[in-house]
Write a structure and sequence with these properties.
Layout: E1 2-5, H1 9-19, E2 25-28, E3 32-35, E4 49-59, H2 64-79, E5 87-94, H3 100-116, E6 121-123, H4 133-138, E7 146-154, E8 157-166, H5 169-177, H6 191-202, E9 212-215, H7 222-230, E10 233-238, H8 241-256, E11 272-276, E12 290-294, H9 307-329, E13 337-347, E14 350-352, H10 360-363, E15 365-367, E16 379-380, E17 387-396
Parallel strand pairs: 5-6, 5-7, 9-10, 9-12, 10-11, 12-13
Antiparallel strand pairs: 1-3, 1-4, 2-3, 4-8, 7-8, 13-14, 13-17, 15-17, 16-17
Helix pairs in contact: 1-6, 2-3, 6-7
The structure holds S-adenosylmethionine.
Length: 397
């Protein structure tokens, strides 16, 4: 299978490397990754990839004219395995030197070849070089009578794949904006990023063995929500009672969703455990085996702070992270894996990292690096934002 990566490919690769292993993963350009594995992780739980497809062929050229000729035979052979009826075709290109106009022309050529083979087809026009998730979903291109061809440059070759799933954007919007309790002050963790954090923390521990995801800075509960939807047991805590109440309300709301497959564990309909507690000192009832959390990010900044305020904020966040890691250390098993989103600050073309990141071995943790991503690229950040979220992956020594 081949994944098309999201806006920050290094983060998507780290997620895939956690779910599969590094040796079965091969990055393709900075936009895709091939995974050579028989079993596929449910695409709905992956936050850092926007599409997944099955590889149909590899063409030893990146020239659209050569690709077109070979595609005609690939697509007409492929059509023989589809049911009768009018069928929809879309094309998305990644890494190729192709304008939307050239891709549309390629599509018209394919349409002609398909018609000549006796099938009727509707071509989805390309406003951009790649169709977005909404265009793929609205045109039902992943259904039986649809086909989105992915043309993905792989060095001097082009991989031809057929999309099998795309991100369900409406479901993400519902799980983000539809929740009864939100709080702009603690920040809005996008559900997709929450999925990535859980996947990196859980790595190859599947949800079906009663594995538990623990978030000690749960806020409004986005990480716990996404972990529960994947099927993990969940437990969380927060310094503020109000935040614990928000998480509680949001998780109960999750049970009412049609799509939800979460089963309540107890008669009061709660399928989770929540506590109020200061993560720097609290003794948890059971801190769980997979730690996935977005820790305290400091005060939100909408404009560049003066240096004194910035240094004070970094110090405050450093103190909380360091004390939290020390407190947690004695309460979890050696080998426990953690994925923490911690703050870093983008000021004057420089990234200011927490100093605690240099003291991890001393605190009893090993930092995990990835084969296919550099640590420095694992910072979730949007242009113009001051505070980024750095993904810190650790194991307890
Ligand atoms: C960045 S927010 C997490 C937001 C969360 N991911 C969500 O889905 O809403 C950090 C949370 O840490 C909590 N917090 C701050 N200091 C804490 C501490 N010492 N112990 C536990 N929680 C703390 C805040 O109340 C806040 O809810």
């Amino acid at each position: 299978m081949i994944y098309i990566l999201g806006r920050q490919p290094a983060i998507g690769l780290a997620e895939l490397e956690s779910l599969y292993d590094a040796s079965s993963l091969r990055p393709v350009g900075d936009y895709a990754a091939v995974v050579e594995r028989d079993t596929e992780v449910n695409f709905g739980r992956i936050g850092g990839a926007i599409k997944v497809g099955k590889v149909l062929a590899t063409i030893d050229s990146t020239d659209l004219n050569v690709i077109k000729k070979q595609l005609e035979s690939i697509i007409t052979t492929h059509l023989t395995s589809l049911p009768e009826g009018k069928f929809k075709l879309g094309i998305s290109c990644y890494g190729l030197n192709a304008s939307p106009a050239r891709i549309n022309a390629l599509g018209l050529g394919l349409k002609k070849a398909i018609k000549a083979s006796g099938r009727s087809v509707r071509l989805i026009p390309n406003p951009e070089t790649a169709l977005n998730s909404a265009q793929v979903l609205n045109n039902k291109l992943t259904s039986e009578l649809g086909c989105e061809l992915l043309l993905i440059r792989d060095g001097v070759n082009t991989i031809v794949a057929q999309t099998t799933a795309v991100q369900d954007i409406d479901a993400y919007t519902l799980r983000d904006r539809g929740r009864p309790k939100r709080d702009a002050r603690v920040g809005m963790l996008p559900p997709k990023l929450a999925q990535t954090i859980v996947n990196i923390a859980a790595a190859n521990t599947p949800p079906d063995y009663g594995a538990e995801v623990f978030d000690p800075f749960c806020g409004t509960g986005v990480i716990l929500q996404e972990a529960a939807l994947m099927g993990y047991d969940i437990t969380g805590s927060d310094l503020e009672q109000r935040m614990v109440d928000y998480t509680d309300a949001n998780l109960l709301w999750l049970l009412t969703l049609k799509e939800n497959r979460v089963t309540p564990l107890s008669p009061d309909k709660r399928y989770y455990r929540l506590e109020v507690g200061d993560a720097t000192t609290h003794k948890w009832a059971n801190p769980g085996g997979i730690v996935a959390s977005e820790v305290y990010l400091g005060r939100p900044f909408t404009s560049v702070p003066d240096n004194e305020i910035l240094q004070k904020t970094i110090n405050d966040c450093d103190t909380i992270l360091k004390k939290f890691l020390a407190n947690l250390h004695d309460q979890i098993q050696p080998g426990t894996r953690l994925c923490l989103a911690v703050p870093s600050w983008f000021v004057a073309n420089k990234i200011n990292h927490l100093r605690t990141l240099d003291q991890l071995p001393h605190l009893g943790y090993n930092r995990i690096s990835f084969v296919h991503s550099n640590d420095k690229d694992l910072v979730y950040h949007r242009e113009g934002q001051i505070v980024g979220r750095e993904l810190l992956v650790l194991t307890r020594k």
